[in-house]
Design brief:
globular, single chain
């Protein structure tokens, strides 16, 4: 009896840590499926039309400002931005696969460099498209996108610097933050669909300026970043209560992501994936 009582706390602690890791893996699996669908849509719709020179066909999918006759610079910037989204999404997913880091460290390093450079190019291009081409539905939308773009530039710079300094623990944290910020656009679409399905569109409007729209636009990157900070700290904490609370939060995040991915695939991306 004495041995059992003494041994049970470490066993329960290991169990909580295992649940925490599994919650992260489950969320990542759901997100990976959703991001694969997003990349598929980009390549099937934008990639195919770009290859055959049907630039006006970009607009077959509803866009804030896609192809515009006579706007050569804007059209090129839009094409680069959209097509690089497929590169950065796939590259980011590859960086999060532990087996790749262990078995192909050189590939991991080069893929990481491509990811960070692409992220910077996309952030700068996104800021230009937002303010130089006025690609936004409301001013609050433009501000939300700009904050995300600024965070991408900061996180990418810090991820690069910590890698050069070989501070790999800090590098992983900053790289993960960069990954989440880069995927702010993806999180926004998933979040919008999850909220629309769950509430019938409560607090939303066509210019993304409703109260729910505002929360979702900033929350598209701030909420994932906050969850990551909680997950990271819980994984390095001996407090079982923190680990359990984080498991619940990650489970909720996985459920919301599942609902949002379903909605995005069925209603937003599906018609353009064939």
């Amino acid at each position: 009896m004495t041995i059992s009582k003494t041994a049970s706390p470490p066993i329960r602690a290991r169990s909580d840590a295992s649940l925490l890791r599994r919650s992260g893996v489950i969320w990542f699996g759901v997100a990976a499926i959703g991001q694969a669908a997003f990349v598929w849509m980009i390549l099937a719709h934008f990639g195919r039309r770009t290859l055959i020179g049907d630039f006006a066909g970009w607009n077959d999918k509803p866009l804030i400002k896609g192809y515009a006759p006579g706007d050569d610079v804007g059209n090129v910037m839009f094409a680069i931005h959209v097509l690089l989204a497929a590169v950065v999404t796939l590259g980011g997913l590859m960086q999060l696969i532990p087996a790749l880091r262990r078995r192909a460290p050189a590939l991991h390093r080069w893929n990481g460099r491509i990811f960070l450079i692409t992220a910077v190019v996309m952030a700068v291009g996104g800021l230009w498209l937002t303010w130089g081409r006025e690609t936004y539905l409301s001013l609050i939308s433009a501000v939300a996108v700009s904050v995300d773009g600024a965070l991408i530039l900061i996180f990418a710079a810090l991820a690069w610097r910590t890698a050069v300094r070989r501070d790999f623990e800090a590098h992983r944290r900053w790289a993960m933050r960069a990954f989440l910020a880069v995927n702010g656009v993806w999180f926004l679409r998933v979040g919008l669909m999850a909220w629309a399905i769950a509430t019938g569109g409560l607090g939303m409007n066509k210019t993304l300026s409703g109260p729910a729209d505002v929360v979702l636009q900033f929350g598209a990157y701030l909420i994932p970043l906050a969850l990551f900070e909680a997950y990271w700290r819980a994984g390095r904490s001996a407090r079982r209560s923190l680990q359990r609370l984080t498991v619940v939060a990650m489970g909720l995040a996985a459920a919301v992501t599942t609902l949002g991915v379903f909605g995005a695939v069925v209603f937003m991306w599906g018609p353009y994936m064939l």
